[in-house]
Amino acid sequence: MLKTGLGNDISAICFLLLLYFLQGVPLGLGASIPLLLQKAGVTYAQQAVFTFAGYPFSFKFLWSGLVDSLYIRHIGRRKSWLFPVQLLIGIFLIFLSVRIDFLLESKNVAVLAACFFILNFLVATQDIVVDGWALTLLSRRNAGAAANCNAAGQTLGAFFGYGFFMALSDPEFCNKWLRSESSPNPMITTASFFAFWGTAFIGLTILIAALKSEKNDVSLKPPPLKETYKTMVDIFKLSSVKTLVLLWFTCNIGSAVAGEASMLKLTERGMSRSTLALLSSYLAPIRILLPMAIERFTSKRALTCWTITAVYGLLSAATSPLIIHFMPKMVLDGTSMYIIVFLSFLDSIFGTVNFVSTMSFHAQISDPVLGGVYMTLLNSAANFGGSWPETFALWTLDKIGDSPIEEPFNLTKIENGEQVLSDFYKWDPIFSLSIICTILGILWFAIFARKLFYLQNLPKKSWLVAHSGSSDKHTSDISYYPLLDDDMASNVIL
After folding, report:
1. Which segments of 334-428 does DSSP mark as H helices, in order?
2. Ramachandran class of 384: left when φ > 0, alpha when ψ lies in -120 to 50, beta otherwise
3. 3-state secondary structure 163-176
4. Contacting residues for 211 by C-beta, under 8 A, at least 6 apart
5. Residues near 351 by Cβ (< 8 Å), separated by ≥ 6?
6. Residues in contact with 180: Cβ distance below 8 Å, sequence separation at least 6, in sequence order
7. CA 346 to CA 370: how far, in whole Å?
8. Name one Pfam family in it (predicted).
9. Are 344 and 286 in contact (CB under 8 A)?
10. CB 483 within 8 A of CB 138
11. Overall average pLDDT of the 79-107 stretch
12. DSSP code of 232?
């Protein structure tokens, strides 16, 4: 939470907001690609291929030590990485602006996934750098402002890259809300939007390089690179950590269909793509402000709170086929927006509680001597556990049956008799997949629920690495590694 008496930290806070805003833009652009691919007519198996583009955030701990330890002294520990990385992001966005339309039209998903994998690798690296720089930019009194800057800046950037972009690139949305005269063309094109942000990245990076200096804090000397990776291995050898990682890797299998798969199915049945994109942006304040209100409750029994949200996630996934099935009817009678807004509101609340509970538990159990390395590993495990089920769900949809829908729902065509409403009520593979995942989710709770409470009640010593000794020791330099992964940090205020 931001504290009074910001003093000289105001300029640092504005600088961090800018950096996190820039970080959010390419993340938002990446989030828009599945909707553009669906519009181009790709299969769900191809959508699954694109999900691999987001995996750098699950594995950035592999190179976080390099970013922290290797730098050019006279340039600065953070500037040595920030400026080349941000310049590369800008150049890469401009490169994509030239190829993006062709790649979408040709449905070359593999190349798209590779391009966004590289882009996300660069963004994840920028995240490591900015998280680390925040430690010296802010005074100790206002150190907590870094998480606020992350949440606010990244959320705003993602809005411009996702909600704002999807709205202005949709001719129907522009004609309905923004134009006095209808036009078949969008207000912005995909290529021009990518080119604009690529140019903005390069321009702002050059400006920052010229105007922003970095102070060298000798007290934050990074640990030897070898020591960092040895520490990671030692942490993973703990039986308690192995159990927790197994739980995080498997806990989302029951709710696999509730994410991107359901979103794409809803748009097939008449839900506006631009509306879905804007809705996620409108609900962003909940993800920013709610953590402050619930921190006291989640910190006491973190895994109990997490379990409640996991049960909600399973119920939500189990009932999502009903929403998908009746979406055409709700579009026709005008109730679809109310239903989706209500459900999205619930998802935002429970999703935020889920995240804060996870982060709270990680903070409680992490060996303070090892600090950031410990947190980075646990957060990466939780992040990966949320990523692979979506890949699995999208890939499986094409393997268990053919979609009954040849052309997405169009209200005008329904009214003109060009589409038959009954075609949208046929059995869909996602209904079968939902049943399978629900059964797997119930089995998961039957097998692992007790493990959750077992881990919650373990004594602190069960989480300590033997060579680090007691938690009473002073925190080593290793603790200065970035703690939050990109997707998580945008949803919480510490």
Report:
1. 336-365, 371-397, 411-415
2. alpha
3. HHHHHHCCHHHHHH
4. none
5. 287, 309, 491
6. none
7. 36
8. Acatn
9. no
10. no
11. 96
12. H
d(CA 240, CA 248): 12
Query: In this structure, how many other beta carbons lie within 10 angstroms of the beta carbon of residue 338?
Result: 10
Share of the chain above pLDDT 90, in %: 51
∠ CA 68-60-199, nearest 5°, is 85
Calculate the average pLDDT of the chain: 86
Nearest alpha-carbon partner for 244 in 78, 440, 462: 462
> What is the largest distance, in Å, between two alpha-carbon atoms of the chain?
74
Residue type, 132: G
Residue 10 confidence (pLDDT): 87
Residue 293 vs residues 3, 116, 299, 353, 443: alpha-carbon distances, Å: 16, 35, 12, 10, 33
What is the third-level CATH fold of 12-222? Growth Hormone; Chain: A; (1.20.1250)
Instruction: Give the integer Cα–Cα distance in Å for 88 and 118.
Output: 10
What sign has the CA pseudo-torsion 102, 280, 343, 319? positive
pTM, to two decimals = 0.86
The torsion defined by the Cα of 342, 345, 347 and 353, in degrees rounded to 10, comes to: -150
C-alpha torsion 60→63→68→70, nearest 10: -160
- Positive or negative torsion for Cα 135, 486, 377, 70: negative
In angstroms, the Cα distances linking 382 to 259, 312, 371, 397, 427 are: 16, 18, 17, 24, 33
Whether the per-residue pLDDT at 292 is higher than 90: the answer is no
Q: How far apart are CA 42 and CA 40, in angstroms?
A: 6
In sequence order, what are the residues at sequence separation of 6 or more whose Cβ sits closer than 8 angstroms to the Cβ of residue 345? 283, 286
**Torsions phi, psi for 237 (to 5 deg):** -75, -15
CA atoms within 13 A on the CB side of 300: 3
* Lowest-pLDDT choice from 211-220, 271-280, 314-323, 441-450: 211-220
Lowest mean pLDDT among 221-230, 344-353, 354-363, 380-389: 221-230
- C-alpha 393/C-alpha 391 separation (Å) is 6
Looking at this protein, which amino acid is placed at residue 429?
A: P
CA distance 240 to 445: 18
Q: For 328-331, which contacts have Cβ atoms below 8 Å and span 24 or more sequence positions? A: 328/269, 328/270, 328/409, 328/414, 328/421, 328/424, 328/425, 331/269, 331/270, 331/271, 331/409, 331/411
- Hey, how many other C-beta atoms are within 10 angstroms of the C-beta on 449? 13
Residue 388 reports pLDDT greater than 70: yes
The three-state secondary structure class of 269 is: coil
CB 342 within 8 A of CB 421: no
- E strand or H helix that includes residue 329: helix 302-333
